[in-house]
Write a structure and sequence with these properties.
388 residues; alpha/beta; Trna Endonuclease, Chain: A, domain 1; 2 domains; six-stranded mixed beta sheet; 19 helices; 6 strands; 55% helix; globular
């Protein structure tokens, strides 16, 4: 009976594996199909002999004439074109060349290119279908791993990425979505909470992003975020709650909290006890950061930051540096998460400490975009002044 059950389990696992593989292939095919539709539309608008006849109604006209094809709404056609314009390098990927080789054999690309361009020398090489000026325009921009983009993200992910204003910001969300295997909902949350703006204080975001893409070591300010948005804890500001309630909510939503903290955080302990002369102290949360190769100690504060909080954290860091740090580790870092802070007090309380202590704010509700943008801009201006 046990052997039969093992066989049944194996069949079930194999079925699930191939189901996932089939879904993945469908997603890849859909993504490439939509890119090609966008390419056709863009080329028609550029070279179509009768394009002036339809003017601004081109997408509406196409949608009307392709009702028999699922998903060909006017809005989707606009997205397909935006996808092509934003990612002209898609055809450079090995995945696209492999998939679209079938179109070459069917001579679809050849016939469409012949109809949409005035050139009599249309090549069957897929790469040649991307205008040279488009390829040259990519020079100097961040190099994307388009194979990972196609294979690991769905077209629904790409729809969200197209909402990003700017190439560097879009690249940031691409890298994070791929590296962290974000669902579409997680990507939406990251973008809605302005994760790009909250990450790092570097004046050159592109340099920081290139380091992130190449797995190069990051600076502290390029890793930690400010403020942290913890709306997923579902705590209400008007309801009284304690620091233990806040800590428990974080533990209950640990996976989402780790995503909010950023890449490389590994949870180690809560209420970590350290003892001096039979007196016990407890550190709220302890993490290890794989990229920075150090422990990260977190102290949770409901109210405003006080100078005593910095002194207490420095004690914890001294203890960890002497007793918990392993060979190859860097000195530990402390984060005091508080509801509010006075910048001058933070400056005088943390300057000269033997360890790095960050005082960052948390928000249990996600404010509207304008309010959040103002908060981030103020934080960035303060940080830039510190750097100068």
């Amino acid at each position: 009976m046990e052997n039969i059950q093992n066989l049944v389990s194996l069949i079930g696992e194999t079925q699930q594996f191939f189901k996932q593989q089939a879904q993945k292939q469908v997603n890849i095919a859909l993504t490439l199909r939509n890119w090609m539709f966008g390419f056709y539309i863009a080329e028609y608008e550029l070279n179509g002999a009768d394009r002036a006849e339809y003017g601004q109604r081109i997408l509406k006209e196409i949608a009307e004439r392709t009702k028999h094809i699922p998903g060909m709404s006017e809005r989707n056609l606009y997205l397909f074109k935006s996808f092509h314009v934003s990612y002209p390098q898609i055809l450079q990927s090995a995945t696209a060349k492999l998939y679209l080789s079938g179109l070459q054999r069917l001579e679809i690309l050849q016939s469409v290119t012949a109809k949409l361009t005035t050139s009599e020398n249309s090549s069957l090489e897929i790469v040649s279908l991307v205008p040279t000026e488009k390829l040259q325009s990519e020079t100097g921009k961040l190099q994307r791993d388009v194979d990972k983009l196609i294979n690991q993200l769905s077209f629904t992910h790409i729809i969200e990425l197209l909402k990003a204003d700017g190439d560097v910001k879009r690249s940031f969300y691409e890298i994070e979505a791929i590296r962290n295997s974000w669902s579409v909902r997680e990507l939406q949350r990251a973008m809605n909470s302005m994760l790009f703006e909250r990450t790092g204080i570097s004046s050159n975001k592109q340099v920081a992003l290139e380091k992130l893409a190449k797995q190069e070591p990051l600076q502290l300010e390029e890793v930690f975020r400010n403020p942290y948005v913890l709306e997923f804890l579902e705590l209400k500001e008007e309801t009284e709650y304690s620091e233990s309630d806040l800590e428990q909510a974080i533990i209950d939503h640990l996976q989402t909290f780790l995503l909010e903290m950023g890449k490389g955080f590994c949870f180690e302990a809560r209420q970590k006890r350290i003892t001096f002369d039979n007196t016990h102290y407890r550190i709220d949360l302890v993490f290890y950061h794989r990229i920075l190769r150090c422990n990260v100690l977190i102290d949770l504060k409901l109210g405003e930051f006080t100078h005593a909080d910095a002194g207490q954290m420095n004690v914890y860091l001294n203890y960890y540096n002497e007793n918990e740090k392993h060979e190859g580790d860097n000195p530990p870092v402390g984060i005091i998460l508080c509801a509010s802070k006075n910048e001058n007090l933070v400056k005088y309380a943390t300057t000269g400490l033997s360890h790095q202590v960050l005082v960052n704010k948390y928000m249990i509700n996600l404010p509207n975009e304008n309010d959040l943008r103002k908060i981030i801009e103020i934080e960035q201006q303060r940080n830039e002044l510190k750097v100068k």
